[in-house]
User: Which sequence fits this backbone?
């Protein structure tokens, strides 16, 4: 076997340039797979992370009758005494933060300009506000007793030409169906680097939001952030809730993302196949050429008694060497490609899909698991590509092979 | 003892719609230790007959027995096994593996036969010495002259201690001196080890070494004569 490997290695060395380019084809194939996979992973990861931390939380507890698309403010659709419910949930070990939030819809007006907006009432003290607090570009974050301040996203502020300290008029639907209008001061401008969210969301302190919407001591939901996403199912099952409320996890609340991820995985599987097929065709071509060039040698080996299986092993060994070389080079190229991609990222701005929060800049996310599985996939595909040429070599009739031109 | 026994062997090649009879009912028996020359003009069937004896090809009709075993109906692997253990080949072209050194080329049949490293080393060095190329053990074929390459091929053919060595025009690509040297070595090994040689040639100087000359013409044996050999 060692001799077979030695011969295979030396055979590849006969035409170094061809062997190098064949291994390079494997390497480019693997690097492309790694880059594609990590970009998709990065985009899906970003979408999911944005959705969880900005919009859905890991878990929400809300009234069974609540319809988030309508942002209903009827008391029967809201959580009564939300502070109490939230503090009970916060006792669970896996919970990082549990906080009431109130959602309402309205208009923000400045003189001659106005914009439809989603109003989110938050408890400014909660750790769940981390992404907004961290993203303050100018001004200050809200305080619980602030009665006239609001936080506005950077794109909305730019659209309405607002700066910190400017006055703005906010019209809000109330629980009894009226519209309440009140003046507010821009306390701070934030960014989460997610255009879809930042352009349409303003924050008020919960107490103020409850007051303006006339939903006294009620909240749309209890927004729960866990210490780790993997705790979701166990935490959801441990939450005790009063009658009339229900527990929703991020999977229920972000069905679009999970469906999109499944679809993206199917598409990417198809692209994997195309890349692997191109790589395989290069290897098959190289080894078939090698079989043709060495037909007489195959005849000699056969004449001195080498069985077909060993001849097959000789050519398969060559594909193993090409696979090893190609995969090692591909890992280097792949990691380098991901590094280059992430130096600046890929800016998509507000090109995100409707209902789909994606960060402004896509960054590739290369995981060890994915790298290992793609490496194995490429390695196996390369070796399998050697099967046909190897089989062809093993089936050559010695007499015909010996007659071949050198 | 009969090393080769061929009975009524016919070989027909189909090239497109044309059938060509390379052998037409050949009968031949070769005894152990003979140094036999197959002679005849090009296309007479010498090479085809060698290929039948060497289990490289199978007859259309008739039977071929090597060391008393009918090899006519063996499958590919069984024929490869038979060649590996029993038959050595020397070809007109210097049929060495270009990526292997002289030593490794001679070693190859021993590796295929599963000999240990020590056995292989001893046998290879013994053979390289016999063909007077001990000092070229680490040279690759492209670093050897034609005559040296053919001597390495002789050493490789002898490596597994076969009972039969088949040589197809072994001196055709060599100059007179080298051709003579190769024939001298083959003859010497035949006499010293008793291994049977069958070689195809139409070179009168080579025929002079044979102890038996079998003449073929148009796929038939037309003459079979004993000679003294050099």
Assistant:
């Amino acid at each position: 076997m060692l001799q077979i490997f030695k011969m295979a290695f030396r055979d590849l060395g006969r035409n170094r340039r061809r062997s190098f380019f064949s291994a390079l084809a494997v390497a480019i194939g693997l690097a492309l797979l790694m880059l594609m996979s990590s970009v998709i992973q990065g985009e899906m990861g970003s979408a999911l992370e944005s959705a969880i931390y900005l919009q859905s939380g890991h878990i929400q507890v809300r009234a069974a009758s609540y319809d988030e698309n309508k942002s209903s403010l009827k008391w029967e659709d809201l959580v009564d005494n939300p502070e109490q419910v939230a503090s009970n949930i916060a006792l669970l070990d896996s919970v990082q933060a549990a906080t009431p939030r109130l959602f309402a819809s309205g208009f923000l007006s400045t003189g001659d300009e106005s914009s439809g907006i989603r109003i989110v009432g938050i408890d400014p003290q909660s750790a769940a506000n981390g992404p907004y607090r961290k993203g303050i570009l100018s001004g200050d974050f809200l305080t619980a007793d602030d009665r006239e301040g609001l936080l506005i996203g950077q794109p909305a502020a730019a659209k309405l030409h607002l700066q910190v300290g400017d006055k703005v008029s906010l019209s809000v639907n109330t629980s009894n169906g009226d519209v309440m209008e009140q003046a507010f001061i821009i306390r701070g401008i934030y960014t989460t680097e997610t255009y879809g969210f930042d352009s349409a969301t303003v924050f008020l302190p919960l107490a103020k939001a409850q007051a303006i919407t006339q939903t006294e001591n009620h909240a749309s939901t209890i927004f729960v952030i866990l210490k780790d996403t993997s705790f979701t199912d166990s935490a959801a099952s441990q939450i005790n809730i009063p009658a009339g409320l229900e527990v929703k996890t991020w999977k229920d609340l972000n069905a679009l993302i999970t469906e999109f991820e499944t679809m993206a995985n199917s598409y990417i599987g198809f692209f994997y196949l195309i890349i692997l097929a191109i790589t395989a065709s290069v290897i098959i071509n190289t080894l078939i050429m090698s079989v043709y060039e060495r037909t007489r040698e195959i005849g000699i080996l056969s004449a001195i008694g080498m069985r077909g299986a060993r001849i097959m092993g000789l050519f398969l060994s060559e594909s193993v060497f090409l696979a090893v070389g190609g995969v090692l080079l591909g890992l280097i190229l792949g990691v380098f490609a991901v590094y280059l991609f992430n130096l600046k990222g890929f800016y998509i701005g507000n090109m995100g899909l409707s209902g789909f929060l994606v960060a402004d800049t896509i960054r590739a996310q290369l995981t060890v698991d994915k790298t290992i599985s793609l490496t194995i996939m490429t390695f196996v595909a390369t070796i399998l590509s050697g099967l046909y040429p190897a089989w062809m070599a093993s089936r050559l009739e010695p007499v015909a092979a010996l007659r071949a031109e050198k | 003892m009969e090393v080769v026994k061929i009975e009524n062997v016919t070989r027909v090649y189909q090239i497109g719609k044309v059938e060509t009879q390379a052998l037409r009912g050949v009968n031949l028996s070769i005894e152990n230790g003979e140094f036999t020359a197959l002679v005849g003009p090009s296309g007479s069937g010498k090479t085809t007959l060698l290929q039948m004896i060497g289990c490289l090809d199978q007859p259309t009709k008739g039977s071929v027995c090597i060391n008393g075993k009918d090899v006519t109906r063996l499958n590919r692997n069984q024929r490869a096994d038979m060649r590996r253990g029993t038959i050595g080949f020397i070809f007109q072209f210097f049929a060495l593996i270009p990526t292997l050194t002289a030593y490794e080329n001679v070693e190859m049949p021993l590796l295929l036969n599963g000999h240990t490293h020590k056995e292989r080393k001893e046998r290879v060095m013994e053979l390289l010495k016999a063909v007077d190329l001990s000092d070229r053990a680490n040279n690759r074929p492209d670093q050897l002259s034609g005559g040296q390459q053919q001597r390495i091929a002789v050493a490789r053919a002898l490596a597994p201690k076969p009972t039969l060595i088949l040589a197809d025009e072994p001196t055709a690509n060599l100059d007179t001196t080298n051709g003579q040297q190769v024939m001298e070595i083959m003859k010497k090994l035949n006499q010293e080890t008793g291994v049977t040689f069958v070689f195809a040639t139409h070179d009168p100087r080579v025929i002079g070494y044979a102890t038996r000359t079998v003449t073929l013409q148009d796929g038939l044996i037309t003459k079979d004569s004993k000679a003294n050999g050099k």
